[in-house]
Specification:
The complex is a heterodimer. By secondary structure, chain A is an alpha+beta fold. Chain A has helices spanning 39-47, 156-172, 180-187, 204-214, 246-253, 288-299, 317-331, 342-349, 351-371, 386-398, 405-418, 423-426, 438-452, 461-470, 484-491, 493-499, 529-533, 546-562, 576-586, 605-609, and strands spanning 56-65, 71-78, 81-86, 102-104, 108-115, 119-122, 135-140, 145-150, 219-222, 238-241, 263-267, 273-277, 305-309, 375-379. In chain B, the strands form 3 sheets. Chain B has an 8-stranded antiparallel β-sheet with strand order 4-3-2-1-8-7-5-6. A 4-stranded mixed β-sheet of chain B has the order 11-12-14-13. Chain B has a two-stranded antiparallel ribbon with strand order 9-10. In chain B, strand 2 and strand 3 (81-86) form a beta hairpin. Classes of the chains: A alpha+beta, B alpha+beta. Chain B: It is found in: Cytoplasm, Myofibril, Sarcomere; Sarcoplasmic reticulum.
């Protein structure tokens, strides 16, 4: 096979003899021509860890540097990932992914080749390597750094080959590329791992079940977007007020940015609702009827509601991205920040400021929704970033169900995945221009809550970290697509749907029975059962369980409401201090003062690796 | 009706007259009035404590913010403390007894705990000292333990204001007699149980036996001996009556320079290397005397430096490490971050919190202390060297560094008893000048500070360094200095490498050797001790959360395990086991906050209000869609 034909040295001929594979996995095509006689045995050994459909492009012996202890092993580049395989290390067949030695191609943020003390070349996809590297540095987007020193002495061609192979593989792989093989191989095993399965919110049943759970009686599941013709970024189903007709919805949604009209996010048992919608579409010219429809959808039966501009007081997408880049620079192992300047450097990234801003705003909203039983509409122009963040945080603050393992995963699935958060774009898959790790900002907010209320969450920090890491492991479509529509298209569900489309609630006959789609929530793709056990927070207070918590919340609310014996007009002149007291008196308000907002250890992970 | 030890105010506890222009809403005053008539609040006096002055109808702010809520009561100044007797003590439920200790109540400020006193005159805050011409409307007391009290004197009778303000100023700021300072009479009254088994009780190190026990415990008795040459403090008042020196050292040498220049044993490592400390010899100009000092020192030095069997490394803490002044300056800056008068101030400092923290350098000082201790640990553990800490009086940084080294190297010091014994050995018997460093006697305005482990440290007394380094004759000092200079010039890189290697190796090893514990000193790892510094700031508390939540969960679990264990035992022995009493301290307290158990009680009394910015209401406008984001205010919601 020719790699672009740029030079002899990295011209890798196809392997004539296929090496032996692992016990169960399908055979992968091994393409490597290594000079030494031992290579055949070695490469068969290497290939044993391959995923179905994975091809080894090149490999070279090397030494992992910068980490204690230094390890010699083999650097392997495949069409899916770069792996450093230490000598004698055996990949666990149950969890073929996400080992600390794997770098999915999409996770490689930066590749540098070093020769001598001064020659450093930054290798972009498609670059041509100008020298034989002594060392290469792979910077992961997840703050990891892999530093490999190649063995000298006649092996340079291999160093060159493997480096070029990485460059080429990055150029050829797209962000959207998935470890398809794993999905296939695991699909046969069924989704037994999800117990109970996390509803993917792709069927009307899922939405109906969730609606019942929340007790949202004034709402129904609308099927108006079943063919994604109202909005491709919206889920197929969503909740709308009972008495609004689908035709009205279709008309009303047209007046919102990208057709994202007001939908219910969460119904508070006290009666208030949390809604989200996009900005008003500037060019539209609604008639009186449309306006009435929009209005009644926004009000949803409440006499007064509060419209919150989600973008106000929160960082812009560009701010988030910049802060995250700065934070990454600070947390990378080669960060040059002196220990005594760490705090101001951290402050300088503004990342924690943004975390605080999110927590502050979310707790304000949750007071409004719970204590003051006021319906709130979150409005963001795109309705796909900060709205998801705020809506999820508010639910975490106000609904104990959301703090369980099941509840949290459903929440993320509903408010982020199904709601059309553009994961691929925001995580840098479609070019840098719109990259902005809003979801990681959300995870950091949740981590802060976990720190502040360690007995209130059923899941552990380990779980959050696993979720965080999964963002960079392209084994399922969850984080690899921008919209539910694209996700559906990929999994082939869409075709089966459109052919049998019937209006109303009728379900496509085949449904998900024939194609159990894997999602990020199938944890056994990436983690062993021992690791999955660690997702449970041992400090979780069983009294916090939803059943007993809810009434308590209401008592608290009542107490709180009794103290609200002031004219509402006085709302207008207050500072942050008093607002804070309000929240504290609720008991479950997050603290967003700097003293309370901690820097999370996972951010300093990179540093500690140094 | 007022018994012994209880003082009733003359005309005190009168309700305020309604004619006042009050910040407090009438209902509240009314409530207070009612409570006052119902309940007489009593002042708890310790044996021997005397009331000096008092004022009634003082309003203590719960938290000074725009709402100006407070509690009425009496402000009393005794010869031991300033006490506020609120009228709402009845609200204290059983839970809250947890928040008190036996001597000092929630609203008590011992006189030596007062840091600064401010008065507010026409909204302006001024430091109060000496004789006052004008008396303030409000008294703000900053305590050394970082509490802030605010007393409003607006409703207090003028002569009472004069008496209490000048009384408090006088009794807190005037130089004091030692006997007035502490609870000597109380302590005498309290039961004094002397116990001797050093395994279960704090070792006081006030007898030869205690030192011998410690020598034996650390296996230092091969090379070191306990001496009683300073019995009855005949040689030196600074040194303890008994201490430990190298075995070959003749005892009469101790007397030579009143204990200066003598290596005093602190602790022995499992491999035989020892940590020693030495106070520097007096500085002399005279060459003859210097010559004598030199030969004296050479002799002494040989007792601990006998290559190749024993090598000593000298750490000069007086000139090569933190200065006491540096520590003091940093702490003064640092503590200002926590002495918060009101929430506005809190949120103001909040914006730049991390850089403010950093600019105080306090955390960096802690890092440097830990780093120094790791360096010394490395010398002893990896290089098998004796380490001699040298300091002017060997009673400030010596105490700090030597206790840190022992905490890292000796697991015994990490038990409660072991830790108490360590403090006793290194700080109390080590002659740390607590009185001066904490400025308890108010003899000057220089101040004190405390280390992260709440061990009081040091105070600077600028000493003339001139002559100390006169190198033409000073062979003795050269000996020490030479080491230092050569270390700086030649081996500093090497030293740094040794340190780094040792540190990294230790941290990458899963198992510890001999219970060694090395702290992480990287930037992100040095943190603010929230319980100590933030406990009085209500804004920083997380109700029902923080580490305390985990801790209480853990206690609960242990309790459960214990009761299960008891049940098993019961079944096993088939006999009546004593009922598990398990009064879980942390349970059932709604007030449990992240800063328990040392935090001030939070009483939420201020009115909650929501902000307006960012909120928009939805009106009934017809052309809603056209209006874009322009909505009317949420006025009538």
């Amino acid at each position: 096979m020719w790699w672009g034909g740029r030079g002899q040295s990295f011209n890798i001929a196809p392997q004539k003899e296929e090496p032996e594979m692992g016990l169960s996995g399908p055979k992968s095509v091994q393409e490597s021509r290594m000079p030494e006689p031992r290579s055949r045995r070695l490469s068969s050994c290497l290939a044993s860890g391959c995923l179905p459909g994975e091809q080894i492009l090149a490999w070279a012996p090397g030494v992992r540097k910068g980490l204690e202890p230094e390890m010699s092993g083999t650097l392997i580049c495949t069409n899916l990932r770069v792996t450093f395989q230490p000598c004698g290390w055996q990949r666990n067949q149950d969890t073929p992914l996400s080992s600390e030695y794997d770098f999915a191609l999409v996770n490689i943020g930066r590749l540098e080749a070093v020769s001598g003390l001064s020659r450093v070349q930054l290798l972009r996809p498609g670059s041509l390597l100008k020298f034989i590297p002594e060392e290469i540095l792979i910077h992961g987007r997840d703050f990891r750094l892999l530093r490999i020193a190649f063995e000298a002495g006649g092996l340079e061609p291999q160093a060159f080959q493997v480096t070029m192979a990485i460059v080429q593989a990055r150029a050829q792989s797209s962000q959207a590329q998935q470890y398809l093989g794993i999905t296939l191989s695991k699909a046969g095993q069924g989704s037994g791992s999800r117990k109970p399965p996390i509803p993917l919110m792709e069927t009307a049943e899922d939405w109906e079940t969730e609606r019942n759970k929340q007790g949202a009686r004034g709402w129904r599941v609308s099927t108006v977007n079943e063919r994604f013709d109202v909005a491709t970024s919206l889920p197929r189903y969503f909740w709308v007020p009972n008495r609004i007709l689908d035709s009205e919805i279709r008309r009303a949604f047209g007046h919102f940015h990208q057709g994202r009209g007001p939908r219910l996010s969460w119904h508070h048992p006290g009666g208030s609702d949390l809604l989200r919608c996009g900005g008003f579409y500037t060019a539209s010219d609604p008639n009186k009827e449309d306006i009435r429809a929009v209005e009644s959808m926004l009000q949803a039966g409440h006499s007064d509601v509060v419209l919150v501009d989600s973008m106000d007081e929160l960082p812009s997408l560009a701010d988030v991205q910049l802060a995250h880049l700065r934070l990454r620079a600070l947390c990378l192992p080669d960060s040059s920040v002196a220990d005594d300047k760490w705090l101001s450097a951290l402050e300088g990234t503004r990342w924690l400021d943004y975390v605080r801003a999110c927590l502050r705003k979310a707790s304000d909203i949750s007071v409004l929704v719970t204590a003051r039983v006021r319906s709130v509409i979150l409005q963001e122009r795109g309705d796909r970033d900060l709205n998801g963040l705020l809506s999820s945080l508010v639910q975490l603050l106000s609904a104990p169900e959301a703090r369980t393992l099941f509840g949290f995963q459903s929440l993320v699935q509903r408010e982020w995945v199904a709601a059309g958060h553009p994961f691929l774009t925001r995580l840098g898959g479609t070019g840098a221009s719109e990259e902005s790790p809003v979801f990681l900002l959300f995870l950091d907010c949740v981590w802060q809550l976990l720190q502040q209320f360690p007995a209130d969450f059923e899941f552990s920090e380990f779980f959050l970290l696993a979720l965080h890491d999964s963002v960079r492991v392209p084994d399922t479509l969850t984080f690899l697509r921008n919209t539910p529509w694209e996700r559906g298209k990929q999994s082939g569900q869409l075709n089966s749907y459109t052919q049998v489309y019937t209006p109303g609630y009728s379900q496509p006959p085949a449904g998900n029975s024939f194609n159990p789609q894997l999602s990020v929530w199938d944890w056994d793709l990436r983690y062993s059962s021992a690791q999955i056990l660690q997702f449970q927070n041992p400090g979780y207070d069983l009294e916090q369980c939803p059943d007993s918590w809810l009434p308590r919340l209401q008592v608290k609310c009542l107490n709180f409401l009794n103290s609200l014996d002031f004219p509402t007009g006085s709302c207008c002149q207050t500072g942050r201090s008093e607002r804070h007291n309000v929240l504290s008196s609720l008991g479950k308000a997050p603290h967003y003062s700097s003293a309370a907002v901690t820097y999370s250890p996972w951010l300093s992970l990179g540093r500690q690796m140094s | 009706m007022l018994g012994k030890g209880v003082v009733g105010g003359g005309g005190g506890t009168k309700a305020p007259k309604p004619s006042f222009v009050s910040y407090v809403r009438p209902e509240e005053i009314h409530t207070n009035e009612k409570e006052v008539t119902e309940k007489e609040v009593t002042l708890h006096l310790l044996p021997g404590e005397q009331v000096l002055c008092e004022a009634s109808t003082v309003l203590k702010y719960v938290q000074e913010d725009s709402s100006q809520h407070g509690v009425y009561g009496r402000l009393v100044c005794t010869d031991f403390k300033i006490a506020f007797l609120g009228d709402d003590e009845s609200t204290l439920d059983n839970d809250e007894t947890q928040f008190k200790n036996k001597v000092i109540g929630e609203n008590d400020i011992t006189l030596h705990c007062v840091d600064q006193i401010y008065g507010v005159f026409d909204e302006k805050k001024k430091t109060l000292f000496g004789q006052l011409k004008k008396y303030p409307e409000k008294l703000i007391i900053h305590c050394k333990d970082l509490r802030v009290f605010q007393f409003c004197l607006r409703y207090t009778k003028e002569e009472e204001v004069k008496r209490i303000v000048s009384g408090i100023i006088h009794h807190t700021q005037a130089p004091k007699l030692l006997k007035r300072l502490f609870l000597f009479s109380y302590a005498t009254a309290a039961q004094n149980n002397t116990v001797t088994d050093p395994k279960n009780h704090t070792v006081m190190f006030d007898s030869l036996k205690d030192w011998c026990w410690e020598l034996e415990r650390t296996k230092g008795n091969m090379k070191y001996k306990a001496v009683s040459v300073n019995e009855d403090y005949e040689v030196c008042e600074r040194l303890p009556a008994y201490f430990v020196v190298p075995t070959p050292l003749p005892e009469e040498n101790v007397q030579r320079f009143q204990g200066h220049g003598i290596p005093i044993w602190c602790w022995s490592c499992h491999n035989g290397s020892a940590l020693l400390k030495m106070s520097a010899l007096p500085k002399e100009q005279d060459d003859g005397i210097l010559q004598i000092q030199k030969s004296f020192f050479d002799r002494i030095y040989k007792t601990i430096h006998r290559p190749p069997y024993e090598i000593v490394k000298t750490e000069d803490l007086s000139s090569n490490f933190l200065s006491l002044q540096e520590i003091q300056t940093a702490y003064s800056k640092f503590k200002q971050l926590f002495l918060i008068d009101n929430s506005t101030e809190f949120w103001d400092t909040d914006i730049k919190w991390f850089s403010l923290l950093e600019s105080s350098s306090w955390l960096d000082i802690i890092r440097r202390c830990l780093k120094k201790a790791i360096e010394i640990t490395e010398c002893m553990e990896a290089q098998n060297m004796n380490v001699l800490l040298l300091e002017e009086n060997a009673s400030d940084l010596c105490c700090l560094i030597s206790s840190l080294v022992q905490l890292m190297m000796d697991p015994h010091c990490r038990t409660r008893i072991g830790f108490q014994s360590l403090i006793q050995k290194e700080w109390v018997m080590g002659g740390h000048c607590f009185l001066d460093r904490c400025n308890h006697l108010r003899q000057n305005d220089k101040e004190e500070h405390q280390r992260q482990l709440s061990l009081p440290l040091t105070q600077s007394k600028s000493s003339p360094k001139r002559g100390f380094f006169r190198e033409e004759t000073d062979h003795l000092i050269k000996n020490l200095l030479g080491k230092r200079i050569s270390k700086l010039i030649n081996s500093s890189d090497e030293l740094q490498d040794n340190f780094r290697e040792f540190y990294d190796t230790w941290h990458s090893k899963p198992t510890d050797y001999h219970g060694l514990l090395l702290p992480h000193i990287e930037g992100p790892e040095i943190k603010v001790w929230a319980q100590r510094y933030l406990r009085w700031i209500p804004e920083a508390q997380i109700l029902g959360g923080g580490r305390v939540a985990t801790m209480s969960k853990l206690l609960e679990m242990m309790e459960e395990v214990q009761s299960l264990q008891e049940k098993i035992d019961e079944r096993h022995h088939s006999q009546q086991a004593p009922q598990a009493e398990a009064p879980c301290l942390l349970r059932n307290s709604a007030r449990l906050s992240s800063l328990f158990p040392f935090a001030l009680l939070q009483r939420h009394s201020s009115k909650p209000v929501l902000p307006t910015s960012g909120w928009k209401a939805l009106g009934d406008e017809d052309d809603l869609a056209k209006q874009e984001d322009e909505f009317v205010d949420l006025g009538d919601v």
